[in-house]
Structure prediction request, 281 residues.
Amino acid sequence: MVNTEQEAQQVVIRHIGGFAWPTLFLLSTCVAVYMSCIVYLLAEPTFSWWVLAGVGFCTYAVYTPLHEAVHGAVTGMSLERRWINEWVGHLAGHFLGISFTAHRRSHLKHHRATNDPSDDPDMVLSAGNALELVIAWLKGVPKEWLFATSFAHFTDTEKVTVRRELFAIVATRLVVLFACADLGVTLLTLILGQMIGNAVLVTLFAWLVHHPHSEQERMKTTTVYQARAGFDTAMTVIWGYQNYHAIHHLYPKVPFFRYRRLYRALEPYLLESGVPVKRLI
Prediction:
């Protein structure tokens, strides 16, 4: 029985480390699907709902490997494999259209000041009604670019890396637009797919788990969402395990696919400590 944070940390340690193969598999799937969509747009001038769905799926799903890389959770405690963690982050960020280097700074600041009205960079994604949520959907990528171009505390090395990342993002997309079979179809597919995927990402990953964005006490900043037996696994997989996002904020080195397992191991302690839990289904 876990009764203290020190005892909880002993359980957490057993859920950290090792090479995160599920993360690498997810990234590889996203890359394969997205590149297949690009190949279609280069060869075919007709609109495809399947390609739109592929772009939307990748926009949503590829953030998970990026997020894992931000926290060094891809290669665990291995310093020799740290370069793999970095490349996972850069590659995922490129497909999403944001700088991994800048996002790491932004996201870690979000962790330090979760739900703080003045210091949390993700507060721009808070919303009190449906209209505000729709507006938040449109801010996801722009807020990352704004942070990347305005953050004053990058090191000189980071500044160079961010410039290279942003240049590569723009350059590769321009190549696709110049080489595509139909400019209108390509623009519609890529922009609409990005918007759909980003809307799902913002809703599930940034808005719902922190709503109403008012709690700043460590145990209460993030809500766990569950479903009754038989539905929780499906909901958890679709949600990318982020319905257990509270585990991530409490213990950020734990890989995403272990969130639920760790929650169950610590559930009595977490509930006693005030972690909010809601049942959706």
Observations:
- The mean pLDDT is 96.
- Strands lie at 224-226, 277-279.
- Residues 110 and 120 are 5 Å apart (CA to CA).
